[in-house]
Amino acid sequence: IKWGILGCGNLADKKIAPAIRQASNAELIAVMDSNSEKAGDFADRHCVRKYSDLDAFLSDSEISAVYIATPPFLHCEQAIKIADAGKHILCEKPMALNSSEAKQMVKTSQDNQVNLMVGFMMRFHSCSLRAKELIEEETIGKIVVADAQISWLNPPQEGAWRYNPEFSGGGCLMDFGCHAIDLLTFLLGEIVEVSAFVDNVVFDYPVEDTVVAMLKFARGGYAILNNCFSTEGDNRLFLYGNKGRLVISGALGTEPEGKIEGIVEGTSKAYPVIFKDPYVAEIEHFSKVISEGTAPTMFGEEGLRNMQIVEAIYQSGKTGKTVKIEKE
């Protein structure tokens, strides 16, 4: 499958382009950025053709799939144009600025019969996939509580779009808290109710730096989300079941590394993991979806649901009340 990348930022340069090159069933052939010089530098480094005009980029008949690697405020408009051009879309998280935009993206992709998936690569992490197997095997019994810790100390940086809610949609929750929400959904199923604190504990920029949320699952059980720009976390996932517990390091991260350790009925155990780069796994999965017509691990509708959970957490933090996530 031949790919184009929209946006030439650090993620596209350091993660997405290398992953497409390494994937067994994908080829990177083009990049587009409105900054022509930036696009040219990127194209030269990755040996692809460059575009600085979106319409020209989308007119390239060789491109079958586009990775949207731009800031969130651009995702909806760009995804609609890509879908209208008949190309498949893998969109960087968060899906959009809000669920209203996400709904437009889902509808347009459906109308044009193209695949839309959100770049929640943590569900492709080898530790995540192994953890899902252990959960399905009921290794620690029924999951009662999960504790997802995902934090990154992020002091103010002049000119950074992340601190402007018009560009980012929010702070730590929109930036990578949504990753943890997706991973918890992947492992434990549908989230139906939330209660949260959303605050600025350390920094006074106009988006939140600290989120602590309680999540309730349709299958029963709960999760705690500890998500901050205000502290450097160790980014681990703890799963507590009625027969034991698991500590998963690495799944809430971007590198092909980590470990899974547990205590089951009083006995300590380490669970082996065979690692693969999660970005490569994500690209190979989506390329297979396109070439073979198989169902993606997550549809655009799941990205929309993720946005609705994020909005519910913001609403709970603002009102001090528990918020139920209604089905569409």
Task: Itemize the secondary structure elements and their pairings.
Blueprint: E1 2-6, H1 10-22, E2 27-32, H2 36-46, E3 49-51, H3 54-58, E4 65-68, H4 75-84, E5 88-91, H5 99-111, E6 116-118, H6 126-136, E7 143-151, H7 165-168, H8 172-188, E8 191-199, E9 210-217, E10 222-228, E11 236-241, E12 244-249, E13 259-264, E14 267-271, H9 278-292, H10 300-319, E15 323-324
Parallel strand pairs: 1-2, 1-4, 2-3, 4-5, 5-6, 7-10
Antiparallel strand pairs: 7-11, 8-9, 8-15, 9-10, 11-12, 12-13, 13-14
Helix pairs in contact: 1-9, 4-5, 5-10, 6-8, 8-10
Task: Explain how this protein is built.
Helix content is 36%, strand content 25%. It is of the alpha/beta class and 328 residues long. The chain folds into two domains: 2-120, Rossmann fold (3-Layer(aba) Sandwich), CATH 3.40.50.720; 122-277 and 298-324, Dihydrodipicolinate Reductase, domain 2, CATH 3.30.360.10. It has a nine-stranded mixed β-sheet. It has a six-stranded parallel β-sheet with strand order 3-2-1-4-5-6, sandwiched between helices. A hairpin with a 2-residue loop joins strand 13 (259-264) and strand 14 (267-271). The radius of gyration is 20 Å and the shape is globular. The model has no long low-confidence stretch (mean pLDDT 97).
